[in-house]
Structures are given as C-alpha cells and as structure tokens.
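re: that complex we talked abt at group meeting.

here r the seqs, copy pasted straight from the sheet so there may be weird spacing, ignore it
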Amino acid sequence: MTIEIHDLSKQFGSFTALNDINLTVNPGELLALLGPSGSGKTTLLRVIAGLETADSGQVLFNEEDSTDKHIRDRHVGFVFQHYALFRNMTIFENVAFGLRVRPRKQRPNAPEINRRVTELLQLVQLDWLADRYPHQLSGGQRQRIALARALAVEPSVLLLDEPFGALDAKVRKELRAWLRKLHDDMHITSIFVTHDQEEALEVADRIVVMNRGRIEQIGTPDEVYEKPANPFVYEFLGHVNLFHGRVHHGHAWIGDLQVDAPEYSEAEDLNAIAYVRPHDLEVDRTLNGEPALAAHIVHILAIGPVVRLELAGKDNQSANSIYAEISKERFRELQLARGDQVFIKPRKLDLFPNHAQNGSIH
Amino acid sequence: MTAVPLLQTSPAPHKAVITQESPWARWTLILLALSFLSLFILLPLLAVFFEALRKGWEVYLAAITEPDALAAIRLTLIAAAIAVPLNLIFGIAAAWAIAKFEFRGKSILTSLIDLPFSVSPVVAGLIYVLIFGLQGWAGPWLREHDLSIIFAVPGIVLATTFVTVPFIARELIPLMEAQGSEEEEAAIILGASGWQTLWYITLPNIKWGLLYGTILCNARAMGEFGAVSVVSGHIRGLTNTLPLYVEILYNEYNFVAAFAVASLLALLALITLVLKTLVEAKVAQQTSRGNHS
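got the structure back, here u go
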C-alpha cells in the first residue's frame, strides 16, 4: 500500500498542528515520524487513520482519495501509546474483537476465529495469556497484545502512536528490535510516531523529521544523521556542539581555527553557526603546529568504551559546554584529568548561516 | 498510574508516631463525631420505626395495607418506573456526548443538567403548573383535547423526571472523562459500528457507575416531595405518592399510620445505602483498574 499525502493542513484554534505536509510512504516500508512534542507528528498519524480530519489537503491510499472514507473502511491497524486494550475483555477477546464485529457475511466462523487469534498470540509470543485481563499484564505485554489486535483484521497499513513511549528503557529496547524483526517478516506498510531519535534511527527505514507542523527533512537514518538539512535537525538528532563563527569568501573562522567552506564562496563576512558531533572532535594536549581551540576539562565521564569529556572553551565561540567523545585508549594515552588544558579541532563540521545575527538576511 | 502514593515506603510504626494525635484528642474527636451522628441521623431513624410500631404489628400492617396507602405505593412505583428509565437513557446519551466529544455549547449543556439541583423543587413544580395548568400556556389546548397533566399522574411523572435528571449523567460524566475515548477509537478502527462500540466497549466500562447513579436516581424519584407536591393536588388514592401521603396522615394527627408509611421510605433509604456501599466498592475497583490499564 502506497500512502500519498498532499498539502495537508490542520489548525486547532490558533495552533497550527499541520502546515502544508507533503509525503509519500512507499509500500512495505517502516517510516518514523520523529519530532518534539507539539510538532504535529501524532496529528498527522491520526489524520492518516481517519481519527482526525484535516482542514485541507488529501490522503491517498493506493492513489485513491480517502478524505471522505470512514475510519472503518480504511483498513488501518492502529496501536495506541497507552495500549487502549478493552479492559472488560480477556486478551483473547481483545484480539478477536475486530473479527467478531464484522457483518455476518464477512465474519469468520468460531473455529476460524479461534485459529487466527491463537496464531496471532503465538506471533507475539503471548498465547499463554489468552484468558487473562489487560490489567493483569505488564506494559510490554499489553503493547504486544495491542499489536496483535491491530494485526487481526489484516490491515493494509499499520500505524503506531509512540508505541514504546510508556515503557521502561529495557523493555523499550527489546520491543524495538522485536518490532523491526516483525516488520521484516510481514512487510506491512508501517508508520510509527516517536520523539526518541535513537528509536527512530535504530528501527526505521526512513525518517520524517517534523517541527512545528512542518516536515524538516525526509531521509534514511544515515542521511538525516550524517547530512542534516538544517540546524533544527542537527540539534534534534543526537548530541551536537555549536560554535559561533564567521564565513568569508569560501573560508570559515571559529576563533583561531580556519576551515574551508567552498559552498560559501560568495559570502561576505557572514555570521555562521558550526555544528560538530562530539565524536568528530579531536582532542590533544599540544597544538601540533596546527590551529586549534583551547579548552579545559570540566568533567570526565569514563563509563564504557567511550569517554565523554565536558569542556569549557577559552573564548566565546561556544556559549555552552563543549562535549567531546574519545575512545578509552586515546583517553589513557593522553592521561587526561579534570582541569587540564587541551586543544580541540573538529574533524568534520557543518556550517549554517546564523540568521538571528545577520539581521537583514532572511 | 498517578494514584500510586509516593511516600508509602516509610515504615508504618514510624509514621504512626508522627501523624497521630494524642489518645486523649483522638477519643474526644471520635466521641464528638459519634454523638453527632447518633443525635442527628441514628436517633431520628430509630424514632421512625419506634413510632410506627408503637401500637404493634397489626396496626402497622393495617396502616400500610390500607387502600389509600397501597395506591400511594403504586403511584410512587409508577413514577419511578417511568422517570428512572428515561433518565437512564438521557444520562447515558448526555454523558457520552459531553465526555467523548467536543462541541459548541458543551458547557451550557453541562450546566443545564445541573439545573434541577440548583433550582428549588417547588419552583420546578410551579414551572409545570405554569405550562400545563388550566390557566397555563398549554391549558386551553389540553382542555380541548380532554387531557390533564397537572393534578394527575402525568404531572407527577414529569416533576419526578425533572428533579432526578442530574443523578445518572452526573455520575457518568467524570467516569467517562477519566476513561477517555481511546478504547472507543480502537474499536471503531477495528471495524465496530457506533452501536457495537456503545454495547461492547462503553457500557461494560461504565456499568458500575451506571448502577450507582441509577440507585441514587431511584431513591430520589421515590422520595421526592417538593416538586411533586405542587403538581399533585393531593387527591387521596389518586395523586398521592408515598411522601405526600405521609404528610397528609401527619396533618390529620394519624401519627402511627404516618410513621408506618414513613418507615417504608426509611427502609428504602436503608436498602439504597447498602446497595450504594456495595456498588461504590465495585466502582472504586474498576476505576483503579482502569488507571492501570
């Protein structure tokens, strides 16, 4: 099932939840809608499901306009953040519900329902819980049942609204991997909403980064992480250090540091922001002849294979603390301690014009 | 999830020392509360039964099996049997609309439901007299068609229905709001129709709250005095409900009969109380379970 979304907009009073959204979901892919709260990702999911109606724009299911189609006729499976299991029914009845409410002619007979529900419960590895009630299950179990219930009606699209948001970190990681595997086995077109960038990067085929009702970037996890389209995506996806500098005729200056910036060959003394991932910062005790930024160590977090350094810059290139990640071997080699003076140099950085300070430039 | 108390980890004996008053203060307060309860609630209740049985069982039974008494019982039951189901349907519909949907005029509807609580029952009765009475707006038309509402059974049913409107709706609205509409949304996405959703999802989730509201509604429907008194006309054997009949007997200095009939109402109150307590426990259980699922 291909889902196409054209020029979708929605207002809640004066709040713009969706602002001119255009998006195509390819058949069989697992797409993540990623963004902070209030970015419109859940609204977009609910519009696709038919739980909300958009003010303008279209949602096409296999090139067929579904704007006026009733929720029932859209054949979507929906998994809620808080599971929304039917509390007065057993687990078995929950999963069977979608089959039992069908019109008499389309309804499978009792043994068939029995067989399909058992099959689905086996798929989510919880067939031994069939006679329990939802309140007797753990959060992770409930969410798996919610998924089995959604799959029971053989939907052509699976929509998941923050499916792991209410679970603790360990269960969340397990379910993430499990969902990815399930999707690889079933190949059902799926869209899931999350505010957890790690979750999106780990699970999705493609990620749609949303902010304030708009799409900021669409791409594979690798693309959005390695080549963020704009400062928002940079700051939202993973940790990042921010340096203030200037670009002029194809070169950028951050303090004493000079880097090539060929894409800014036209720029005339422009304020710019440079983004550097913590693992792209080289840390050294000495200058090595090349220009670098001086900083001193404020805090060291040396747990696991990666050592995280919190640094304070000597100059004002960076308003906040600077974070650098180096390997444990490198850390031992340098024999770093709190308060030590070091020099840092980015291996890779991305420049964006600083509109706030350039004033007239839009 | 929110209901989990955070401070429960501190050991109980330790907590007891901090939070409890001295024994002297404790017992004074308990005694005060108990004597208040006995004086204002227990004593009158006992007095009703004491007075009713003062001249023995035979007189008591004769008083409540007299034709006028039986007529009053029948009318009370009829009024409740019509008013309670009407409010059951209206209460579910109103609570469903208010709790599950956003629409213009929602707050007005909510306050309208509360109106019978905030208006004096006498005024409620007078409104009906004003509309349906012989001199009222609809009076001439009713006379032409030989219909009587005021000083007749329909008026009593109307007045009873009016004063009992809030009970079920008020009980259901907070319950349904707390439960949210995710289960209903899930049901509809799974292909259920509106009626199937109501029947399989919504009603089972509110059944104990519904029963609780119905019990209270019924108690009030049978015990209503003010509004019914205005529209009834106090015709013995015809338009007298139990509370009105008690008043008439009392005004005639027929104390034993008055208390005998009153004891029926008191009995109703006691039964209601017991049922209410039982259902309340169920509601609490369901709500806490709801919060965890």
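couple things i noticed - The two ends of chain A are 40 Å apart (CA to CA). Residues 283 and 330 of chain A are 9 Å apart (CA to CA).
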